[in-house]
Amino acid sequence: MIPAPFDYVRADSVEQALTALAEHGDEAKLLAGGHSLLPLMKLRLAVPTVLVDIGHLSDLSYVRVESDQVAIGATTRHHELETSSVSLTDAPLLAHVAGRVGDPQVRHRGTIGGTVAHGDPASDLPTALLALDAVIVAQGPTGRREIAATEFFLGFFETALAADELIIELRVPRTGSVGWGYEKFTRRENDWPIVAAAAVDGRVALANMGGTVLRAKAVEHALASGASLGAAAEYAAEGTSPSEDMHADADYRRHLARLLTRRALESASSGLSGPSRSGRPR
Amino acid sequence: MSILGTRVVRTEDPLFLTRGATYTDDLVDERLTGALHATFVRSQVAHGRVLSVEIEEAARAPGVVAVITAADLTDLEPLRGYSFIPKTMVRPWLAGETVRFVGDPVAVVLTEQRYQGEDAADLVAVDIEPYPAVVRLADSAQESTLLFPDAGTNVAKTFKKPAPQDFFDDCEVVVRQAIVNQRVAPVPLETRAAAACWGADGRVTVWCSNQGAQQVRDQLTEWLALDDGVVHVITPDVGGGFGAKIGADPEFALIAWLARRQGRPVRWAESRSENLVGMVHGRGQDQTVTIGGRRDGTVQAYGIEIVQDSGAYPWLGTALPGLTILMAPGVYAIDKVHGSARSLVTNTTPTGAYRGAGRPEATAAIERAMDLFAVEIGMDPAEVRRRNLLPAFIEPHKTPTGATYDSGNYVAALDKVLAAAGYDDLRREQAQRRSRGDVYQLGIGISVYVEITGGEPDEGGEEHAQIEVHADGRATILTGASPHGQGHATGFAMLASARLGIPLDKITVQHGDTDRVPEGGGTMGSRSLQQGGAAVHQAAGELIDLARQRAARVLEANPDDLVVDLPLAGLSVRGTPGTGVSFAELAAEEALLVNSTFSAAAATYPFGAHIAVVEVDTESGKAEVRRMVSVDDAGTILNPLLAEGQRHGGIAQGVGQALLEEVLYDDAGNPLTSTLADYPFVSATELPSFELIAMETVTEMNPLGAKGIGEAGTIGSTPAVQNAVIDAVAHLGVRHIDMPTTPMRVWRAMNEARATPESMRTDS
Amino acid sequence: MQVSITVNGAARSDDVEPRLLLAHYLREVCDLRATNIGCDTTSCGACTVIVDGLTVKSCTVLAVQTQGCRVTTAEGLSSQDGELHPVPAAFRAEHGLQCGFCTPGMVMAAIGLLADNPDPTDREVREGLEGNLCRCTGYHNIVRAVRTAAKAGPGASAVPGAGEVSA
Question: Are C5 and C68 in contact (CB under 8 A)?
Answer without folding.
Answer: yes
